[in-house]
Design brief:
Non-ribosomal Peptide Synthetase Peptidyl Carrier Protein, Chain A; 5 helices; 56% helix; globular
Length: 87
């Protein structure tokens, strides 16, 4: 998967999972704001499950998933690094 395709997939997952009007986000957007869910619908769990199935990464184990200061770019970089095969 190309870096652009990875970013597009993650942004579309955020859009669909959290009802954003589009999938156009800025790399410096705060990740916790993008995935904030004030409802009891378990959107965050569905988002994590979808990415785990599609990308093979447990995003809940990434630092950016828990860090309130993490940006979207940080999250994408961590997903990309987690998908790399070990040396």
């Amino acid at each position: 998967m190309t870096p652009d395709a990875l970013v597009d997939r993650i942004c579309r997952a955020i859009q669909v999972s959290f009802d954003w009007p589009n999938s156009y986000f800025v790399p410096d957007d705060m990740f916790d704001v993008l995935i904030w869910d004030p409802t009891p619908e378990l959107r965050l769990a569905a988002f994590a499950s979808d990415l785990r199935k599609e990308l093979g990464v447990d995003v809940t184990a990434l630092r950016a998933f828990e860090d309130p200061m993490a940006t979207l770019k940080c999250f994408v970089d961590e997903v990309r690094d987690a998908r790399k095969p070990p040396p």
